[in-house]
From TrEMBL, chains A, B:
Keywords assigned: DNA-binding, Transcription, Transcription regulation
Name under which the protein is recorded: Sugar-binding transcriptional regulator
Alphabetized InterPro entries for the sequence: CggR_N (IPR048715), SorC_transcr_regulators (IPR051054), Sugar-bd_dom_put (IPR007324)
Domain CggR N-terminal DNA binding, chain residue ranges per copy: 19-87
Organism phylogeny: Bacteria, Bacillati, Bacillota, Bacilli, Bacillales
Length: 342, 342
DNA sequence: AGCACCGGGACAAAAAACGTCCAACTAAGC
DNA sequence: GCTTAGTTGGACGTTTTTTGTCCCGGTGCT
């Protein structure tokens, strides 16, 4: 069922919206018994005229009966509502979830794909597709887009497709190299994205975690300083979100720091920063690439992560309050709202 | 899957059309490899401008890539087409089937609901719903609508809903009473329809099968003559289609006539007439109610019947060539086209 | 270099959607 | 029986969207 809706959404993006609207109206009419146009318009939050068009439609379909004294649901209408129920539950679950998360954290947009990335690889692909799609809609011309590494971001890169405004864009890594496999490096992903989207890219050939002295000396190098300035001038950043401890291990953070993170209750990691449960930044190492102040200045901060296990981490990062767009999956989204309630 | 599409069609009637259109375009682009807008417009049969809007949409969705040299399908697009295939097969199967039957028999409209009425009661309900819907669209104001009996027609009556133009309509039985149960009598159905649709009705209290003398004497009666004239003035008739032998038995036709029908290869029955394989009328008993010449004069002749077993009968009646609209189910429709091929 | 085809910008005409008001009608309360 | 608050459906000007039509600067093939 999800599969079908998913396919249809690609050919008819406002299908769910229209269905949602009409279902809401029909449902309202049913619970109201006998109701008038204006009253109904109020309660579903539509202007009288557009509601009238919808009512005409429902009448045409024989789903409602309308008399001079008001309108009521017909037998067919009641039947349809019943059959619609399971569909709507799926349909609305996600859109409602999106809206709930969006408004609570004050985001611009939330996109939830069905499933759980932890369990199903297909969901992870969907996440990538959704991420690519949102990026495609947000980019302007000749923009610089900073990206991080990770398997989710790799999926996003894979699903990018050429779009005219992207032709002049630069893709750059948000940070230096990590101890991960090549395919998941920010550098690799930036270049993949550029190739897929038909844009250009620049790389940052430095390790991400450095001591203070090494950091200072590297920043002296004019080439490196130049590319870093370029990166920091990006107006769009697309990043993954990870679990703090998992990321610390993967990054080969030294034992003392790891222990310190654990003590402070580190929960999430995003673009090199660690966050606790309340969204506070815990660990601030001298960083090559984007700094948190750069993030705050961005036009579009797009976070992409999914899987039930990442739910808490995502919530922490959102709490920090710099995100604009979140792309996640159903399992993670439920975790996020569950944390809101507790 | 059918279930979902079916529900959606009630809330978004042009969903299938839009999906069909976009699928066709996308598919064309795929098989063409690299193709231009104008060339494509020709081959899918759309004006350049509307195709352009569609292309913009597909580009927006990232399903195609468009360069100065033309457009080609993207990875996502190809993927979508693959996933779309089973859906389209269902979607198009029926619409294609409809068009095939429509054009072959020169009908105005053919509506096919999925399933087999012989097997599933749900399909029969769908048939009724579709029949009611087509009737609702066809009726004008203050019209007379003649209806026959049968279980399918009962289903149509059940699914009728009030519509403003129907308020002034008269529902009348097309023929006299049969030896069937009360619920399936044309009289009963006419009255049910009138109640459901908010119209009025008149009844014909006469047995349908009579000897010549009895017929003549009945026609002398002014009340009966008046109502029969009224019935014959109808401009819309909605009728079921039955298998000849089944109907003969149900009507308690006398053994000799039954044998004669069998000898002549009677296949179908509709509004009291029997048809052979080639659509010729076999048996013409003196009839109370609509005569075949009245049928030919009608504005809208709507035949409604479904079930694999009725396929051949439907084809026979269609062949006679007086039908305007056919409402049937998938199983019957396939039987009809199979007979076209053989 | 020539040519046939390409995408996309531009713009007026046509169509659809929308906001707004009003007349005729209905049900209920008093 | 009358008032009143509520209803539908018609009408109409305005705004928005869609559509038809040209044309311009490119691209790729020959």
């Amino acid at each position: 069922m999800r599969e079908i809706l998913d396919i249809q959404k690609q050919l008819l993006p406002d299908l769910v919206d229209t269905m949602k609207k009409r279902y809401t109206i029909l449902h309202h009419i049913m619970v109201s018994g006998l109701v008038g146009r204006r009253t109904l318009a109020m309660s579903v939050g539509a202007t009288e005229r557009v509601l009238r068009a919808e009512v005409d439609f429902l009448k045409e379909q024989g789903l409602i009966e309308v008399e001079a004294s008001g309108m009521r649901i017909s037998v067919s209408g009641r039947e349809l509502l019943e059959r619609l129920e399971p569909l709507v539950k799926d349909l609305f679950g996600l859109t409602e979830l999106e809206e709930r998360i969006r408004s609570h954290f004050g985001l611009k947009q939330v996109i939830i794909v069905p499933g759980d990335s932890d369990v199903s690889p297909h969901t992870k692909k969907e996440l990538g597709r959704a991420g690519a799609s949102v990026l495609r809609k947000l980019v302007g011309e000749d923009e610089t887009i900073a990206v991080t590494g990770g398997s989710t971001m790799a999926e996003v890169a894979y699903h990018l497709t050429p779009a005219t405004p992207m032709k002049g864009c630069w893709f750059v890594p948000a940070r230096g190299g990590l101890g991960e496999s090549v395919e998941l490096q920010a550098n690799t992903i930036a270049s993949t994205m550029a190739k897929k989207a038909g844009g250009r890219y620049r790389l940052l050939h430095v390790p991400d975690h450095l001591g203070e002295e090494a950091y200072q000396s590297l920043m002296q190098d004019s080439h490196i300083a130049e590319i870093i300035a370029f990166i920091r001038g990006a107006r769009i950043v697309v990043h993954g979100i990870g679990e703090a401890m998992v990321m610390a291990r993967r990054r080969k953070v030294d034992p003392e720091t790891t222990e310190s993170l654990r003590r402070d209750g580190a929960l999430a990691e995003a673009f090199g920063y660690y966050f606790d449960r309340d969204g506070n930044i815990l660990h601030k190492m001298p960083t090559i690439g984007l700094r948190i102040e750069d993030i705050h200045r961005m036009d579009h901060v797009i976070g992409i992560a999914g899987g039930k296990s990442k739910g808490e981490s995502i919530a922490s990062v959102l709490k920090h309050g710099h995100e604009d767009v979140l792309v996640t999956d159903e399992a993670a989204a439920w975790e996020v709202v569950n944390r809101l309630l507790s």
